[in-house]
Amino acid sequence: MPNPAVACSGPAKRRSSRIALNAAVGLSGQDRANQAFSLSAKATNLNKYGAAVAVTRELLVGTTVVVRNKRGTQVSARIVAQVSAVQGVRTYGIEFMEQDIRATGFWGITFPSNA
Question: Alpha-carbon distance 94 to 108, whole Å?
């Protein structure tokens, strides 16, 4: 039987709904081997505060990258988790580091309220 204290102490409610859209982005930073990179990536599961990005580089959780959208807007983001690694493509969860107008409008869409 599950411990009620543990069952209620799971992850906090998400700050923003995820939207199952794909977006082409540019990603730059330093990879796990400390090599500078700048490449095209695919962002999925977009949300107001970040996304999941698929890249062919091995990145280090906790490091910072710069994400660019097709309109030329750039924001800094932190690699928060590696979600998967399949056939040389690694998917990482990223979180925008600032919540200014560039970040909140980065995807060019309006997110539903989580109220």
Answer: 17
Q: Which H or E element spans position 104?
A: helix 101-104
The residue ranges of every structural domain in the chain are 16-104
Q: What pTM was estimated for this model as a whole? A: 0.81
pLDDT of 18:
66
Which CATH code for domain 16-104? 2.40.10.220
Pairing of strands 50-55, 89-96: antiparallel
> Can you list the pairs that 98-102 forms with residues at least 24 positions away whose Cβ atoms lie under 8 Å?
99/49, 102/73, 102/74, 102/75
- Under 8 Å between Cβ of 50 and 96: yes
Are the C-beta atoms of residues 98 and 75 closer than 8 Å to each other? yes
Burial class of residue 5 (count of CB atoms within 10 Å of its CB; 0-12, 13-18, 19+): exposed
Residue pLDDT, tens place only, 14-40 = 556 666 778 999 999 999 999 999 999
Q: How far apart are CA 59 and CA 86, in angstroms?
A: 14
